[in-house]
């Protein structure tokens, strides 16, 4: 079968830039039109936000039990910035589980999740944390989080398709650096750290759809969308202001595009190879996507046409550099 769709799209941008809204948009376009106009097949979606949310849930439950927090000191950036890599390793695992339709039926979904966090952390050089908790504390923590962990696993496994023909795996994540940082970003900040953490199978099949907003607009939209009653929602979660300034005060995608070895790509050196990942940029600095949070029946036709043209321009650029 001729492959006329992207195999993997890395959907990347600052928080509240419109990533989840774009996913929602794609989910409501006729499949044949999505393939023909955007080169995107039926979506299979991976996202690191549920793992971020569960890290905070773990920390909050531990704190309530009088234990030290493991991932975040509070409503602040990561204790260890290498956890940006932990998240990438969890996405790598989800990608392989998806391709292999790996079904797990653990006695405890929460304990399985704890083991996954520790294993992913070890890959990026972080010693096990959940595995070092006292047995009674870990057991009590697992009981508190079992229902949420089970729902995560069910959602993941329910999405396994019968076939991957004509499918596009969309991997969503946000990366950045401190407000006022100069380029290039260093250490565990930005895409310069996280992109090389993706496995070879992702990098060799991927194109990047980058949604461009300013950090100021990202902060404004983050505040607008935040629903304290729905903190685990893709469309309505809010990021704490200290994190917005400390971890998303800037991002380095423009720098990576401008310094790439090949025009229209991001150069990623990883796993002993050099990958030139095609990129398309959807300019959302003037907001084109917030209306997509509403029910599709309420979408304004003129706004739909505007966002359609902008996304199609980006995916056309991606496709021009995509040779898979």
Structure notes:
The protein contains 12 helices and 6 strands. By secondary structure, the protein is an alpha/beta fold. The chain has one domain (8-320). Strand 5 (265-270) and strand 6 (273-283) form a beta hairpin. The radius of gyration is 19 Å and the shape is globular. The relative contact order is 0.19.
Structural class: alpha/beta
- Average pLDDT confidence is 95
Counted by DSSP, the helix tally is 12
Order of helices and strands: EHHEHHHHEHHEHHHEEH
Tally of structural domains = 1
Sum up the overall morphology in one term: globular
Give, in spatial order, the strands making up the sheet with the most strands. 2-3-1-4-6-5
Strand tally is 6
Q: How would you summarize what this structure contains?
A:
The protein is of the alpha/beta class and 324 residues long. The protein has helices at residues 19-27, 31-38, 49-64, 83-100, 109-123, 135-158, 190-194, 200-203, 215-225, 241-246, 253-258, 301-320; strands spanning 8-12, 42-47, 167-173, 206-212, 265-270, 273-283. α3 (49-64) packs antiparallel against α6 (135-158).
Task: Show the helix and strand layout.
Blueprint: E1 8-12, H1 19-27, H2 31-38, E2 42-47, H3 49-64, H4 83-100, H5 109-123, H6 135-158, E3 167-173, H7 190-194, H8 200-203, E4 206-212, H9 215-225, H10 241-246, H11 253-258, E5 265-270, E6 273-283, H12 301-320
Parallel strand pairs: 1-3, 1-4, 2-3, 4-6
Antiparallel strand pairs: 5-6
Helix pairs in contact: 3-6, 4-5, 5-6
């Amino acid at each position: 079968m001729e492959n006329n769709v992207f195999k993997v799209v890395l959907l990347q941008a600052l928080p509240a830039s419109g990533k989840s809204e774009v996913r929602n948009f794609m989910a409501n376009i006729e499949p044949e039109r999505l393939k023909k106009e955007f080169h995107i097949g039926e979506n299979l979606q991976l996202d690191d936000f549920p793992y971020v949310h569960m890290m905070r849930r773990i920390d909050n439950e531990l704190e309530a039990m009088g234990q030290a927090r493991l991932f975040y000191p509070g409503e602040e950036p990561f204790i260890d910035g290498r956890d940006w890599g932990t998240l990438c390793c969890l996405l790598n695992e989800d990608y392989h589980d998806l391709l292999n339709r790996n079904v797990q039926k653990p006695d405890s979904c929460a304990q399985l999740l704890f083991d996954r966090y520790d294993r992913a952390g070890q890959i990026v050089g972080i010693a096990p944390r959940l595995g070092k908790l006292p047995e009674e504390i870990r057991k009590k923590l697992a009981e508190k989080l079992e229902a949420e962990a089970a729902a995560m696993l069910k959602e993941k496994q329910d999405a396994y398709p019968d076939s991957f023909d004509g499918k596009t795996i969309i991997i969503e994540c946000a990366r950045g650096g401190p407000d006022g940082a100069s380029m290039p970003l260093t250490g565990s900040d930005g895409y310069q750290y996280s992109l090389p953490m993706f496995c070879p199978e992702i990098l060799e099949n991927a194109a990047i759809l980058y949604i461009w907003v300013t950090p100021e607009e990202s902060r404004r939209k983050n505040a607008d969308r935040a629903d304290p009653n729905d903190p685990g929602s893709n469309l309505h979660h809010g990021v704490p202001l200290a994190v917005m300034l400390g971890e998303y005060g800037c991002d380095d995608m423009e720098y990576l595009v401008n310094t790439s070895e090949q025009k229209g790509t991001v150069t990623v050196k990883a796993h002993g190879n050099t990958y030139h990942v095609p990129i398309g940029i959807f300019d959302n600095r003037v907001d084109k996507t917030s209306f997509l949070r509403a029910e599709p029946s309420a979408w304004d036709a003129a706004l739909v046409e505007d966002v359609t043209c902008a996304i199609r321009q980006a995916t056309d650029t991606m496709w021009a550099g995509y040779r898979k």
